[in-house]
Amino acid sequence: MKVQFLGHAAFLITEGPYALLFDPFLTGNPLAAKKADEVKPTHILVSHGHSDHLGDAVEIAKNSSSKVYTFYELAEMFEKEGIEVIAGNLGGRLPADFGSVKIFQALHGSGVVGGHACGFVVGLHDKKIYFAGDTALFVDMSLLESEEIDLALLPIGDFYTMGIEDAAKAVEMIKPKNVIPMHYNTFPTIKKDPMEFKKLVEANTQAKVIVLEPGETVEI
Ligand code: NI
Ligand code: MN
User: What are residue 182's DSSP bridge partners?
Assistant: First the structure.
């Protein structure tokens, strides 16, 4: 699969006919590698309602007729625009033509009254991805070890989410093969050096840390 970092927490992951877009905050994102009208995903996954994650999801879903995966309280916003939504809740595995989507807990505000922030465990072809969304460190991440994660996308920016040290502890629990750090350097409050994270993780675990510039793609 090809993994393209679009800046902040936005990723485009493609495999065969499928293009999965995660947390597409492009308009107003100073690090955005693409404009909203340049992305044509088959599916969009939205972890929570904060504007730096929900981003351009409604517009992109309408323009590309993509299916949206999110948590229950955010569904209505898409449904009233005529967008097809699969909205589950924490712990639920949702059907997906590309494999599977499991909604994993995140320790963070939802941005929507009554809702939850979440992460996703995505099965795509023969690969397993954990997209953490915005979250603090929590010990239940150790449950992900049995998922045999090929790629973990983890926030390291601190202030709103885990910082470098906590994200490194998350890697120790999850034991993924590869890790890409996200949610840093977009704003002055989350200025961090991803190479510091890479050094710390690779000194303490078997995981490979891949640092991507916005716009860069890696094959996994
Ligand atoms: Ni947030
Ligand atoms: Mn955020």
Answer: 155
Q: Which domain holds residue 25?
A: 2-219
Residues of the chain with pLDDT under 70: none
Q: What is the pLDDT of residue 52?
A: 98
Q: Distance, CA 133 to ligand 2 centroid (Å)?
A: 7
pLDDT in tens, 96-116: 999 999 999 999 999 999 899
Between the two ends of the chain, the Cα-to-Cα distance in Å is 6
Q: Which ligand neighbours the alpha carbon of 187 most closely?
A: 2
Q: How many domains does the chain have?
A: 1
> What is the distance between the alpha carbons of residues 62 and 56, in angstroms, rounded to a whole number?
10
DSSP-assigned letters across all residues of 119-171: EEEEEETTEEEEE--S----GGGGGGGGG--SEEEEE---SSS--HHHHHHHH
Asked whether the beta carbons of 130 and 123 are under 8 A apart, the reply is no
Query: How many Å lie between the centroid of ligand 1 and the Cα of residue 171?
Result: 20
Which CATH number belongs to the domain containing residue 179 in this structure? 3.60.15.10
Say what angle helices 194-204 and 164-174 make with each other, to 10 degrees: 40
